[in-house]
Amino acid sequence: MSTRYQLHTTWASLERMATRSKPYNFSAGPAILPPVVFERAADAIRDLRSPPHLRDAPRTGLSVLEISHRSPSFGSIVHRAETLCHTVLGVPTTHQVLFLQGGASLQFAMVPLNLGQPDHASCYIDTGIWSKKAIVEAKLQGEVHVVATSTPSGYDRIPPFPAARTYANSSYLHLTTNNTIYGTEYSDIPTVDGDVPLVVDCSSHIGSRPLNLDNVALGYAGAQKNLGPSGVTLVFVRKDLIDRCAHDRVPHILRYATHAKQPSLYNTPNTFGIMVLMFVLEWIEQQGGLTGMAASNGAKATRLYEYLDSSQLFSAYAQPESRSQMNVVWNLDGMASQERTTATARFIQAAENEGFVGLKGHRSLGGCRASMYNAFPAEGVDALVAFMAEYERTA
Ligand code: PMP
Predict the structure, then answer these.
(1) Are 82 and 288 in contact (CB under 8 A)?
(2) Taking the model in full, what pTM does it have?
(3) pLDDT digits (tens, 9 = 90+) for 318-334
(4) d(Cα 137, Cα 119) in Å, to the nearest integer?
(5) Is 225 annotated as catalytic?
């Protein structure tokens, strides 16, 4: 049996292969991934043995897309992906890593179903639409207290962290650590007083900077921003909480305990997605880990915010102390709303014509948004700033 394809053996050869002309992709998610990861994934579709840690596996000539999720080869992929979540993302070893389906949205429901305790409220910090969706699901299961919110200012900032007495004795405290729509971010995970479990939706900045995950009891993230393709959700949960599910009518598939028994293999997982996530984590490690990511993400975001702060035409939406390094949101200034909508659409179209795609703000907020996840290149931000400055000059 011989493979009919030329496989790539080094990161350098992958890099060469991946260098091709593409638009700059500012999409909020599914989002840009490292070009070399596309090559690695293409290789593994052709021959499962292409990932370096599988080179010594028996030659079968099969693709990763056609092997059993219970095969030793796939088992080693899940195991390696899990290990990299600990070593690269900093998930503590006290936590179980799970790769689930249903997106972050399913976690909005699984969290209260599993961690909600009878006769105890659950507490939420409301920083925008994703928090609100999580709150709606929690309300189906019991009492919810919103202990902080930035709704009065249109979610343009992170609200002050609530006093301990506001969430004492609750089942858990939930917060969204990066708000993809408004471009606000907690620069690290806050510390919770007492033993109330902290639950975080870190979908849109996990992997972008070091985060103190020791403070987190349960974290979840849809993979489709910094970690891989859509269809995989990373969940990490403190092992002592896994069996906490107090409701015996919760379907088995919705219990963390079910998925933890044979990690991520209770039912058929997104095998391809988990493998791509593994490649992305290997790439992050190769780039200097989370410290390397934080340095490059910080530089990219600073570049764009500095321009926005100096511009007479555009202005950043998020308040300076709450600004996200991943999602930068801005508006066109000084116009009545209808005129602004038309001018924004004209700007976005002009940008697209120049090869900058995905700049349209979320439909709930309008305006513009540049999502600059880990894989987004610094030169793309320079090019966008140059384009915007010229647009402003000639507007
Ligand atoms: N939380 C955050 C912070 C998000 O940005 C998103 C999606 N953009 C979601 C939750 C919902 O994720 P999913 O579509 O994977 O359910």
Answers:
(1) no
(2) 0.94
(3) 999 999 999 999 999 87
(4) 17
(5) yes
